[in-house]
């Protein structure tokens, strides 16, 4: 993982491999705030544009909160990586959040009067794609989202 003061290449730089990074935090409500801070810094150091950073921070907050509320996981892992499009088109940022305890991501339909339970609907609305992976019995699950990769300066 990169340190906070490392100069990193611009996303999509020719000849460089796509980047990948991540972190693990305790499965506590306050970890969502720490996840937002870490992801914003990581994407900023990678040269990811502000709009993509803002959306990514919203997504990671919803996914972290989902793990904390709906599982008995002791920790939450987040992986973020650059995905490049074939033929040099616009790439994407892939965010995956994993819980390791029993429970489920709870993507059920909510009634309009309910105050909670819209996190995955929000993730779906702001992502180009998203999904849930079941790790198998006793192995937890992960939820991922893909966002368009805009870089600083519109490159």
From TrEMBL:
CDD domains: HATPase_RsbW-like. SUPFAM superfamilies: ATPase domain of HSP90 chaperone/DNA topoisomerase II/histidine kinase (SSF55874). The keyword ATP-binding applies. Signal peptide: none annotated. One of its GO terms (molecular function) is protein serine/threonine kinase activity. Pfam families: HATPase_c_2. Residues 25-134 form the Histidine kinase/HSP90-like ATPase domain. Keywords: ATP-binding, Kinase, Nucleotide-binding, Serine/threonine-protein kinase, Transferase. This is ATP-binding protein. It comes from Streptomyces carminius.
């Amino acid at each position: 993982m990169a340190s906070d003061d490392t100069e990193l290449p611009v996303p999509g730089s020719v000849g460089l491999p796509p980047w990948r990074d991540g972190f693990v935090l305790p499965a506590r409500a306050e970890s969502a705030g720490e996840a937002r801070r870490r992801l914003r810094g990581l994407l900023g150091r990678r040269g990811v544009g502000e709009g993509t950073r803002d959306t990514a921070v919203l997504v990671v907050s919803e996914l972290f909160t989902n793990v904390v509320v709906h599982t008995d996981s002791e920790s939450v892992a987040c992986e973020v990586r650059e995905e490049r499009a074939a033929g040099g088109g616009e790439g994407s940022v892939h965010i995956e959040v994993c819980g390791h305890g029993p429970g489920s991501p709870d993507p059920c339909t909510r009634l309009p009067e309910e105050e909670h339970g819209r996190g995955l609907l929000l993730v779906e609305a702001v992502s180009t794609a998203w999904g849930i992976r079941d790790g198998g019995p006793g192995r937890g699950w992960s939820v991922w989202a893909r966002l368009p990769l805009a870089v600083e300066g519109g490159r």
